[in-house]
Amino acid sequence: MDGSAAMDMASRIEDALVAAVSAADSAAGGPPRLGQAIRYAIFPAGARVRPRLCLTVALALGDDDPAASNAAAAAIEMLHCASLVHDDLPCFDDATTRRNKPSLHRAFGQREAVLAGDALIAMGFDVIARSAGRNPGRTIALLRCLADALTPPNGIIAGQAWECEPAAELSAYQRAKTGSLFVSAAMAGAIAGGGDPQAWRVLGERLGEAYQIADDIRDVVASQEEIGKPVGRDVALGRPNAVVALGMARAIAIFETLVEQALESIPPCGGRQRLQQLIRAEALRLVPEEYLERAA
Amino acid sequence: MDGSAAMDMASRIEDALVAAVSAADSAAGGPPRLGQAIRYAIFPAGARVRPRLCLTVALALGDDDPAASNAAAAAIEMLHCASLVHDDLPCFDDATTRRNKPSLHRAFGQREAVLAGDALIAMGFDVIARSAGRNPGRTIALLRCLADALTPPNGIIAGQAWECEPAAELSAYQRAKTGSLFVSAAMAGAIAGGGDPQAWRVLGERLGEAYQIADDIRDVVASQEEIGKPVGRDVALGRPNAVVALGMARAIAIFETLVEQALESIPPCGGRQRLQQLIRAEALRLVPEEYLERAA
Predict the structure, then answer these.
(1) What domains, with CATH codes, occur in chain A?
(2) Is the pLDDT of residue B235 over 60?
(3) B290: Cβ–Cβ under 8 A, 6 or more apart, which residues?
(4) How far is Cα A102 from Cα A152, in angstroms, rounded to an integer?
(5) Which pLDDT score is estimated for A144?
(6) Which of A21, A220, B85, B283 has the fewest CB within 10 Å, making it most exposed?
């Protein structure tokens, strides 16, 4: 590992996000409350699961363009935060709490929530465009990858829209709503690291599915304090939940199979073994330990 | 003028928009109502003032990369439509009518309106990224130009956010809310045509200011049918209006001065004279004829 690779991953992500939102600060001349709302949506850090996946893949490929990987990781988190802010709006989930604090529209009002989400989408593309340097081809590929993660037919906006359709197919919904940003995180990490993004698609898909099931498990068993948002929402809102549908033991078994399939899918590269260790450790943190032991 | 330049500008814009939204069609596998909502936001055509400005500038510079100019024009219109859809939401203007039909949230509901706006922002960046060909440098410059048009401190999202601030400076508000997309339209046309975008900034600024005043005039004197949305909204919503503040004669005089300054600012280029004619004709259509004659 070179110097940049050894640098603490969490610091890289937070530093990239701080730099990305600085243009929205009131010091730059923008509206002060909008700048505060944008910061509120991003900080303090959530689990940063998606940008960590992105950087981890780039590092496994050698991370020869750290500016590109940092921008990709920051952009993916900004798009994720934008989707949380808009999904929490009263016309969707009407969530009161997010990351252990009031949801953005509760703290700043609906108008600032709509605008902060809009700004984060545009700023996500901007941070990639501004990272363009000696590899303009990578920059453009990253932008397309991010757009796929958001737009119809398969992006997270389409995923959220399936909730509003009279007839929605569950797998298309989950693939778009949760899977798309995981796929993009893995593929963007590959692009930033100079690899073939298609070779990393299955890793993102399987981790997205595993994350969806882990989320279902936490919705049933975790406390609100642990996950920073209300629990039991799936049942309350009539949304599909794998634990409710299949039982806990079966849900845990599927989760573990998906994680193994994700690890197997990793293409040959210098950092493959280390990457497998990192991803296994990250994945196991998603589910309360006692449930994994019970299922083992 | 070469073949592509002679091609009817309106068809170029509509064709580019049709191509840009095809990925959101249900045939592509996306949620059908979201696809319908996205089309509803864009078609049938409004005045297309901004994409016409963009293409007109590119043509004046020779339009040597029509794919880039078409993408830039389509993207600018998509971002404009996104801002209209979100500005019309109940938490902002609560508009019932837009372009002589129900506003998007009245026709499809608030959830589809939030998502269609989000999708149009992302698709605006996507259409530029997908147009990348032999000039990746232009593609990246176009993406940055679009991002500036949207994001804080000076983009339209910041402009809308000034409406939510306890203390807003009127000129910063109008520059961001109306001016930013005109500036980007002119600069994006210059980038797509291989010119220096900074040389075209003043054209966009003056036309944006002229358009703002023309909008104030129409809000006072036009019928709802003529402008496709309710009139008298500025007074009703307590928003600043140049006619109300300065009187009609003074507003018309300022409008005409701004158009002249815009025409003078056009940098030397092969199509300068033709561009001046086109822009003068477009600008004069913004204000009811009898008012221009009265002021002359």
Answers:
(1) 3-295 (1.10.600.10)
(2) yes
(3) none
(4) 30
(5) 97
(6) A220
